[in-house]
Amino acid sequence: MTAEEFKAVLQAAIAGSHEALETILDQYEPLIRKHSYIEGRYDEDLHQYLLIHIALNISKFSI
Amino acid sequence: MYHRQEATESDELRARFTAWMDILLYRARLKFIRKEKRRIPTISLDELEEEGVIVADYDVFRNQFKREEKSFDFEEERLAKAFAELPIKRQRILEMLFIEEKKPHQIAKELNCSEAYIYNEKHRALKKLREAIKKDGETQ
User: Fold this and answer.
1) Shortest alpha-carbon distance between residue B15 and chain A (Å)
2) Shared-domain flag, residues B21 and B63
3) Per-residue confidence at A39, pLDDT binned at 50, 70, 90?
4) What CATH number does the domain containing B86 carry?
5) How many domains does chain B have?
């Protein structure tokens, strides 16, 4: 994804597009996974919680 | 030149968003862990005994020996057998503790002995039961 495409997708995600949000979540999956560990163990509940947290808070990011 | 400048701005945006996401996820994770900690912790009967705390709860007593739902009836039978092999006084103390749900000080008063004796007898009886069940499980 080029920088321009990324900007467009991010803007759409912030505006509330589900598809764009999905693209962002896919792209940031490794980072989300990195934060989904508790005491060295992968926690699926935490992973779900983080996904919901991003979906609820992405609109707060100002471009 | 203009094109390159625009591309740099978007890259900067991507870097800024990544950093924002990293902080957002870090804080969300801490929040999640704090929430998890607020849940009521569960401690096994063994741990409680090590700390010298008495548990006068028949359900806890039952669950201690209930390893698998499927084999529960079978284990109940083994438990009953092991229980019958205990000295009568120990059997009576366990009954009073876990079935009649009496406090150790009440039992001590009724049986005319010290409270420490009740704790000791309870500990020994449970140990015997646990050993008997474990032994039976290995041989079968």
Assistant:
1) 10
2) no
3) confident
4) 1.20.140.160
5) 2
Q: Do B14 and A63 count as a contact with CB atoms less than 8 A apart?
A: no
Residue B74: how many other CB atoms lie within 10 Å: 13
Q: Which residues of A touch B15 (CB under 8 A)?
A: none
pLDDT on residue B89: 86
B134-140 own/partner pairs: CB under 8 Å, 24+ apart: B136/B78, B136/B81, B136/B82, B137/B78
Measured between alpha carbons, how far is residue B57 from residues B45, B84, B129 in Å? 10, 20, 17
Do B24 and A57 contact (CB within 8 A), yes or no?
yes
Q: Residue B14 corresponds to which tokens in the numbers above?
A: 């991507």
Chain B contact set for A23 (CB, 8 A)? none
Section A50-60 average pLDDT: 95
Which domain does B36 fall in, by range?
1-41
Q: Does residue B54 share a domain with residue B28?
A: no
Q: How far apart are the first and last CA of chain A?
A: 18
Give the C-alpha separation, B12 to B20, whole Å.
12
Query: What is the mean pLDDT of the segment spanning B74-86?
Result: 75
Supply B115's token pair. Answer: 């409270």
- pLDDT score of A2: 85
Q: Using one digit for the tens of pLDDT, what is the confidence trace for B5-25?
A: 555 666 889 999 999 999 999
Q: Is the pTM of this model over 0.80?
A: no
Q: Residues B68, B133: one domain?
A: yes
Q: How far apart are CA A45 and CA A48, in angstroms?
A: 5
